[in-house]
Here is the input.
Amino acid sequence: MTPIDEVLAAYDLDINNLKVEPIHNGLINSTWHIKNAHKSFILQKVNHNVFKNPQAIASNIRLIADYLLKHDPGYLFVSPVKTIRNEEMMHIAGYGYFRLIPFVKESHTINTVKKPQQAFEAAKKFGEFTKLLSGFPVQKLQTTLPDFHNITLRYQQFLGALETGNKIRLQESKELIQFIKDNKNIVVTYENILHNPSFKLRVTHHDTKISNVLFDEKNKGICVIDLDTVMPGYFISDVGDMMRTYLSPANEEEKDFSKIEIREEYFKSIWDGYIGEMKSELNKEEKRHFIYAGKFMIYMQAIRFLADHLNNDTYYGAKYEGHNFIRAGNQIALLQRLIEKERALKDLIKG
Ligand code: GN1
Ligand code: MG
Here is the structure.
């Protein structure tokens, strides 16, 4: 029996009649679409090197599912199926943790934002998720990834990589390193936020890329998925990652940086979608940091890719030599374009 067969057996699925298709999407977990004539599921193997405590994820999802069922029974929240032994996950000792999620009928995901309306729908869904959980006691959520969006720590890790990283790569990365250092003010603003009583910790998704939203046949958003990183956090994480991944027609893998651009209309759609839901949740001081959110997330991703390159790609892996160097350069180009457009974007949302 292969491990996948073993997992499916734990969910009482007849291995012989199932079609198992890998979904290559996301850098961290592994995902498969499992189906037979009647049923359809998503199977995921949680990356245990990254998520050291998969039980924390299961506990968070259960708490949120129970809360939403009680307060907003109409909201479609997709939580994992239990195993025949009534467990939230299937664990194969020495191999890993798996979970099985029902496939939502007539739903689809997209990998690229090609219309402002898609950005609007996704932003609305992420805003709605946080809003519906505004009464949930956020301190009950466990931290599934400690310091995930702690940009201060990411910056320190980057400085560490400058000390101990690959010497040749350090030489070749001089310009990118300098750019990161020159823009350290982005870290300082975050540190001020931590001490700013106006900033509230809320139930935050922390991975708001477009493929984490389910769309229906009419291309309306249904709900958000991929809940591993749902933890207490600041809204800048969610809005920032939407800006990082929806604004440019070219994504983080693009090698030709001339294709990276900031689409103003898409920015306006993120604002309209998110604020439409969150307007009475966010205060003035938070809203004032809306554009900063994008700078925060793009800069942090640039640091993470660059530090990984300097550390010989131990976290993200690399499909070709210099992959994370290109990704870091890409994110820096995106950040530069965002900074150039900052005034224009401010004008779009003022008043
Ligand atoms: C990782 O696995 P995926 O693609 O959902 C990473 C995110 C990064 C993203 C960059 C747990 O997310 O923080 O933004 O890659 N997740 C983790 O593509 O490190
Ligand atoms: Mg993810």
Summary: The beta strands are 19-23, 30-35, 40-46, 90-92, 96-102, 202-204, 213-215, 221-224, 231-233. The mean pLDDT is 95. The first helix runs from residue 3 to 10.
